[in-house]
Design brief:
By secondary structure, the chain is of the alpha/beta class. The protein is 45% helix and 17% strand. It has 14 helices and nine strands. Strands 1, 2, 3, 4, 5, 6, 7, 8 and 9 form a nine-stranded mixed sheet that branches. The protein starts with 9 loop residues before the first strand and ends with a helix.
């Protein structure tokens, strides 16, 4: 087991820490890819379970096994894996997920055909013991960039990076953002080159109680808020604590059903629009349309306020910037009137 003599086209980087439960399924999903010219760098971050035993049970020359003698956490481990990568492209993989058979092949073909794109992700299917749903992310690079002001628009375990860009801009995961390292990295990348997603499911994302997104949810929320605040500074905005709270609520699609919040949210969204029109940090009119979308959903969530919400929506400058079907507008009006 070791590195190929020939330089591979793709380096798949997968950190694992005490991942024995789902590890074999994750490894198998990479080793059975339709595209085969890759090295598979598996980094055991000081596991104390049967992780090493499972990895060593494979006899595949594409596997490059790296063992950390102690647990150094995911950010340092990821950076270590990227430094070791020899491929033209670097693909991420998590030890509890499943890559679909054509994932590497399709992302490789896309990046070969789109030289301006430095990172390519995809949609994914989230699944648990009780439910399954498809998570769709923005596909257009300009829309991805706009949406970063509110949320990460690349699903981390689906991405493939162009190593040339990584080396040219000395890109790495920032240890200052241990629980949102991917979101912070994509925001830096978006200022350097184009980001894209393929509009098809290429990975199955496992939701379980031991996943980092479950165990470190509060830390991830706090980190994401810091990243968003930094992006706001690019618009020339130094937000107050109250404005950060409003922005975070809009970002999480968890807005209070309160007339005062509706008023302050609209003022904030219009402030973002004017600030971007002055600096053109994000593409227009796409950015304004995205703000209008947030505003519509905020109003839609507050239909229990009745006629108050209806007036907020129909009298707002953002209303004409977001296309809503007549049926949906009718349903919105009915909910407002019935609850008034």
């Amino acid at each position: 087991m070791g590195a190929n003599m020939k330089t591979p086209m793709i380096s798949v980087v997968m950190p694992v820490y005490n991942g024995e439960k789902y590890l074999k399924e994750a490894i198998d999903s990479i080793l059975t890819q339709t595209y085969t010219d890759f090295e598979f760098i598996i980094l055991n971050d000081g596991s104390t379970d049967k992780t090493e035993e499972i990895i060593l049970s494979y006899d595949d020359p594409r596997i490059v096994y790296v063992k950390n003698e102690e647990n150094i956490q995911i950010v340092r481990t990821l950076n270590k894996g990227i430094e070791l990568a020899k491929g033209k492209y670097v693909a991420r993989m998590d030890a509890d997920d499943i890559s679909l058979p054509q994932r590497l092949e399709k992302q490789l073909l896309f990046l070969d055909a789109h030289r301006e794109v430095g990172v390519c992700g995809s949609w994914m299917e989230a699944f648990s013991l009780t439910a399954t749903s498809v998570w769709k992310a923005a596909v257009d690079p300009d829309e991805i960039s706009c949406r970063l002001l509110f949320e990460s628009t690349l699903y981390h375990p689906t991405v493939m990076l162009r190593r040339e860009m990584v080396e040219r801009y000395s890109l790495h995961y920032d240890p200052e953002y241990p629980y949102g390292q991917d979101y912070e990295l994509w925001c830096r990348c978006a200022r350097l080159f184009r980001l894209a997603n393929l509009d098809e499911v290429l990975l199955r994302y496992r939701i379980h109680e031991m996943s980092v997104s479950r165990r470190k949810q509060m830390e991830q929320l706090a980190t994401s808020s810091l990243v968003r605040t930094r992006l706001l500074s690019e618009l020339g905005i130094n937000p107050s604590r109250e404005e950060i709270a409003i922005h975070d609520a809009l970002a999480l699609w968890k807005t209070p059903v309160d007339p005062d919040f509706l008023d302050r949210a609209l003022v904030w969204l219009l402030h973002l629009q004017v600030s971007n029109q002055k600096r053109i940090v994000f593409a227009e009119p796409l950015f304004s349309s995205m703000l209008a979308e947030r505003w519509y959903h905020t109003c839609e969530h507050a239909t229990s306020l009745g006629i108050v919400t209806m007036r907020f929506w129909f009298h707002s400058p953002l209303r004409k910037l977001y296309k809503v079907s007549w049926l949906r507008q009718f349903q919105f009006l009915v909910k407002c009137l019935v609850r008034d």
